[in-house]
Design goal:
The chain is of the alpha/beta class. It has one domain: Aldolase class I (TIM Barrel). The protein contains 18 helices and 12 strands. The strands form 3 sheets. An 8-stranded parallel β-barrel has the order 4-5-6-7-8-9-10-11, surrounded by 6 helices. A two-stranded antiparallel ribbon has the order 1-12. Strand 8, helix 9 and strand 9 form a beta-alpha-beta unit. The protein binds flavin mononucleotide. It holds the Pfam family FMN_dh.
Length: about 350
């Protein structure tokens, strides 16, 4: 049952070791500015994205919905999104469309976060099999359910192929994405789920779909290869593919090399400092999932504390790089370590910071 799978994901992601790889933010170094010429309080962390002003460029990651536990998690996360004036993705809403009795677990996001940036979510393999008429209905249901400001479609071939009841159906996805972009009447975000978006994929998306944003969701955090293999009792197979994917810091550079739209950085981002680094190498916002699941399971106060800490870390990174606003952070100089330099060189990816630091 689809509900059991949703609860399995929450249980396994919260109780087991499901993170792997290195997102390579340890190889992105800021230059410390000893003379910032601003007061800490003057640092302006706000941004405007998808026509919404956020207090800082943070979006709660796409996780769940469809069960009682998921409803509690979504309520806590939505309350925090509203309180901090940040963004929030919901998990895949297919469950609520095929089982409308579960839609409440998503609707409560709109109730608890009426003004926050809210992002609807559907999976590419599922939409690939729908005819256009039904797809219009699914997209409008997903958007209306949470009064969404944008819609995300996730690309998750690794998850589907390791999932016991997986649907690794990717033929025709490009055309369906282009169709969704046409009919959604909202910004379209194309995201991965933790194995990363490459330059090749970003180039196809840019030329054939023209999404408003790409969320790179690289490797270095939650691994759905691990989660699904644990569910399948086939952890050996997961070990063979351990580390499969594009490290998040690299994915940002690869995508930015060929795509001018909004980039959301995610995949193993674990601090406001990681988020600030992502912003300095090409991202416009950052997102985090599993740590917020762990916090939300502990309750509202714990989640609020966690996001407050994240905001403070982000603001400190801005202050210490002398960035008065996010635009200045986007231009803050960084130095890359050898793995990143080598990767970008082999891939012929130019990054302004590489040439600046050479
Ligand atoms: C329990 C759980 C459920 C998830 N479900 C979805 C989903 O329904 N749709 C989606 O686009 N991503 C989903 N993701 C993937 C996250 O959005 C994110 O891409 C991934 O976890 C990497 O970020 P992290 O390392 O910060 O956790 C889920 C993640 C977790 C931990």
């Amino acid at each position: 049952m689809i509900e059991n799978r949703k609860d399995d994901h929450i249980r396994i992601a919260s109780e087991q070791n499901v993170e792997e790889g290195n997102n390579l933010f340890n190889e992105v170094h800021f230059i410390h500015i000893a003379l910032p010429e601003i007061d800490f309080d003057e640092v302006n962390t706000s941004i405007t994205i998808f026509n919404k002003k956020l207090s800082f460029p943070f979006i709660i990651g796409a996780m769940t919905g469809g069960t009682e536990t998921a409803e509690k998690i979504n309520t806590t996360l939505a309350k925090c999104a509203e309180e901090f004036n940040i963004g929030m993705y919901v998990g895949s809403q297919r469950i609520a469309i095929v089982k409308p009795e579960t839609a409440r677990s998503f609707r409560i996001v709109a109730e608890n976060a009426p003004t926050a940036l809210k992002i609807a979510n559907l999976g590419a393999p599922q939409v690939s099999r729908l005819d256009e008429k039904i797809l219009v209905d699914w997209v409008s249901q997903a958007i209306d359910m949470i009064n969404a400001d944008a819609i995300a479609i996730h690309l998750n071939p690794a998850q589907e192929v390791f999932q016991p009841e997986g649907e690794p159906w990717f033929r025709g996805v490009i055309d369906k994405l282009r169709f969704i972009k046409k009919i959604a009447n909202r910004p379209l975000i194309v995201k991965e789920v933790g194995n990363g978006i490459s330059m090749e994929v970003a180039r196809i998306l840019a030329s054939r779909v023209n999404p408003d944003a790409i969320d790179v969701a690289g490797i270095g955090g939650t691994s759905f290869i691990r989660i699904e293999s644990i569910r399948a009792g086939a952890i050996d197979e997961a070990n063979v593919f351990s580390g499969w994917g594009i490290p998040t810091a690299i994915a940002i550079c690869e995508v930015r090399n060929v795509y001018d739209g909004v980039i959301i950085a995610s995949g193993g981002i674990r601090s406001g400092l990681d988020g600030a680094k992502a912003m300095a190498i090409g991202a416009n916002a950052f997102s985090m999932s599993r740590p917020l699941l762990l916090a939300a399971l502990k309750g509202f106060d714990e989640t609020k504390k966690f996001i407050g800490k994240l905001l403070r870390e982000f603001k400190i990174a801005m202050f210490l790089t002398g960035s008065r606003n996010v635009n200045e952070l986007n231009n803050a100089p960084v130095v890359f370590g050898q793995t990143i330099i080598s990767w970008l060189g082999q891939r012929n990816v130019s990054c302004k910071h590489v040439s600046a630091s050479k």
